[in-house]
Amino acid sequence: MAxxxxxxxxxxxxxxxxxxxxxxxxxxxxxxxxxxxxxxxHNASYWSIATKMKSDNGALGAVKxxxxxxxxxxxxxxxxxxxxxxxxxxxxxxxxxxxxxxxxLDAIQVELKGSIDGLKSAASxxxxxxxxxxxxxxxTVKLVTSYDGxxxxxxxxxxxxxxxxxFDDAANPTGGLLKAVSDIDIANPPNAQGYTDVKIxxxxxxxxxxxxxxxxxxxxxSYDLVAGDTDLATLAANLxxxxxxxxxxxxxxxxxxxxxxxxxxxxxxxGSFADTTVSADTAAAAGPPAVAGFSELTVDTAKLSNGDxxxxxxxxxxxxxxFKIGSEKSIDExxxxxxxxxxxxxxxxxxxxxxxxxxxAVNVANDVEATMKNVTKGVDTTNGQIAVxxxxxxxxxxxxxLREGSAMLGAxxxxxxxxxxxxGVLSDSLTAxxxxxxxxxxxxxxxxxxxxxxxxxxxxxxxxxxxxxSQMILKLFQ
Length: 478
Prior knowledge:
single chain; alpha+beta; CATH 1.20.1330.10; 4 domains; six-stranded antiparallel beta sheet; three-stranded antiparallel beta sheet; 19% strand; rod-shaped; secreted; bacterial flagellum; structural molecule activity; Flagellin_C; Flagellin
């Protein structure tokens, strides 16, 4: 049936043309934007997933920027610490030279002051983005390392700045790793307290040993060891509790040595230790009328030093004779020196008995009892050397502290570099994931565009043909 009011062929052709044009418009949009899913209406599920992934990727981009800033911050602090170590090493060299007797401490102090000023400058200038870990209050700094999209939180790396805090205030330091270094003044030592370290082996401690101490300007005092003084810690405690010695020095154990520190500023301390070994009385059992008595001493020649004493008494007498050791370093040398000493040779004869020192009574009716005091002297110090020794110890501690702090910064920088690489890989993965969901396949889109353009042309021609049907009806009435 042909109708003048309704052209079904034209309607069909028009609907087909509209469909083709809609598809063509969509394809042209994909080509112009490069997106297959440009908005939620295109594919709500894909659009939602891609939007979240884009958001997480943006956060990872911020994390990468933060890591770069953190690395630059670590580099700034590491460089300042490295420069500070240079200053400290120079100070160590100068202080070592200052330990030599006769050193010009005033001139060395001028050089030390320059290094101290350099340390303060390095600490003050180590500022990055308003952050200065080397100068100011210490605490924990949290550096951004990653973003957890599922937990919706930022993960951080904690840096303990107390391990690299050089000064709490470089201008007027009251704390920090270099506080003790900043106070060094070897040219003005009266504020220092003298000390001496006495080297004593715990194996040498025994009842009757004597520790002698002298604080400059005071009388030498002594302490006789008791049965309980079997280790350095106990000995130090008993010395501090002693009314005489405890009033002048404070005893402590430092690096396995007994340290005696003056309780008065500007006072030096000297000390010595007498390790008394009592030999056994080896008088002949047959009795003094027939055989002269003798006594043997086991002498550790490695410990012989100027000032050691060999004491002996003959036939239980109250008179004790003493021979002071000088440069003798062997049993034979002791034998020779003692026999050449008229005071000794009048009572006893010295001989070498298989490596032991034998003292035999000259009078066959006498016995002999002998003892030996091996004196190990502590290090006598002077005012200047006190300051230098303390300063050198402070510098050494500072070098160790800064080395540990620099190692901590280096380890954390390595961790950040690894994290930066991981974040970069993760960001690339998210970018690829977003592309898989929303990006258009340009090869497919261009092919589809050509096909739709052809369909559009055919649709226009089909609509034109369908519109000519009305003209055919007109010819029926001619």
